[in-house]
């Protein structure tokens, strides 16, 4: 599979990626990311670190996962939802017209994806202050601004992080940029950044009028921590294997052992 943007590392772009084999240990790491991460960007980094085997020729560390663009990280969470068996998701929402509740489903694998622009991960908008090079925001930027209290503060911090200070380039004072200049930078970044559609339009089943809702695959990535521990307990009780041995099993094989245990107890055919 290929990223819509790619990992820019040592002046080279890597786009191919593969997931690790799906074992209980991988599922546990995904679940624990939700429990222990301080922010959503931190959780995404942990989940991707434990589930991605390679990006190009690289076995990514956390720093590389943070260096992935925000759009690539969103794309990977959508792919990961499918890999964990949660590609199809159901939503219960309230119609904004008739205020009746209704259900709809979608597949994250079918969300529209916009590929990166030709100069990705960089852009160079011409501003009144001068022409500067910027890069599109990445996971590290998301983590850095996650705890900031205001959108204005987050915007200034993000722009400061994303400007590329090359040798002999003039200095830029982000705080002196006009609102128009900031808009130009944001538009230029957006043009180059990969994106996954996070807003979809569905019609109410009651009044048939269109509604727009935001969807986020990360809310459907969490595998059941308690269910996984129950699986470990049931298998350990019968086979006397250690937790590490059970978690190292591929998910399909773990499910088969559970079926055999149920069959021997007369709970299935």
- The shape is globular
* Cα separation of the termini: 38 Å
Measured by DSSP, the beta-strand proportion falls in: 15-25%
In which order are the strands of the major sheet placed?
Answer: 1-2-3
Percent of residues in helices comes to 40-55%
Compute the CA-based radius of gyration: 22 Å
Walk me through the structure.
The protein has helices at 24-36, 40-51, 62-67, 70-83, 139-145, 151-162, 179-192, 225-239, 243-247, 251-264, and strands spanning 2-9, 12-19, 52-55, 88-94, 101-107, 113-114, 122-123, 126-127, 130-131, 133-135, 163-164, 195-196, 199-203, 210-214. The strands form six sheets. It has a three-stranded antiparallel β-sheet. Strand 4 and strand 5 (101-107) form a beta hairpin. It is globular. It is 42% helix and 22% strand. It is an alpha+beta fold and 269 residues long. The relative contact order is 0.16. The model has no long low-confidence stretch (mean pLDDT 92).
Please give a handful of descriptors for the protein shown.
269 residues; alpha+beta; 3-stranded antiparallel beta sheet; 10 helices; globular
């Amino acid at each position: 599979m290929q990223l819509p943007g790619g990992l820019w590392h040592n002046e080279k772009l890597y786009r191919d990626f593969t997931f690790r084999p799906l074992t209980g240990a991988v599922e546990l790491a995904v679940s624990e990311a939700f429990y222990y991460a301080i922010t959503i960007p931190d959780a995404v980094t942990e989940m991707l670190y434990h589930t991605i085997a390679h990006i190009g020729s690289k076995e990514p560390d956390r720093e590389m996962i943070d260096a992935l663009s925000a759009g690539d990280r969103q794309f990977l969470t959508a792919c990961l939802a499918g890999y964990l068996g949660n590609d199809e998701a159901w939503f219960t929402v309230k119609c904004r017209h008739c205020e009746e509740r209704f259900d709809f489903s979608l597949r994250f694998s079918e969300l529209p994806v916009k590929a990166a622009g030709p100069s990705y991960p960089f852009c160079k908008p011409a501003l009144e202050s001068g022409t500067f090079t910027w890069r599109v925001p990445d996971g590290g930027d998301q983590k850095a601004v996650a705890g900031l209290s205001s959108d204005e503060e987050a915007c200034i911090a993000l722009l400061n992080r994303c400007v590329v200070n090359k040798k002999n380039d003039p200095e830029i004072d982000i705080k002196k940029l006009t609102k128009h200049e900031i808009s130009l930078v944001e538009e230029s970044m957006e043009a180059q950044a990969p994106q996954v559609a996070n807003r979809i339009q569905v019609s109410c089943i009651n009044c048939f009028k269109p509604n727009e809702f935001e969807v986020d695959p990360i809310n459907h990535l969490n595998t059941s921590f308690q269910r996984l521990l129950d699986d470990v307990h049931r298998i350990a009780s019968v086979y006397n294997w250690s937790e590490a041995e059970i978690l190292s099993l591929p998910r399909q094989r773990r499910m088969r052992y559970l079926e055999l245990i149920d069959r021997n107890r007369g709970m299935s055919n």
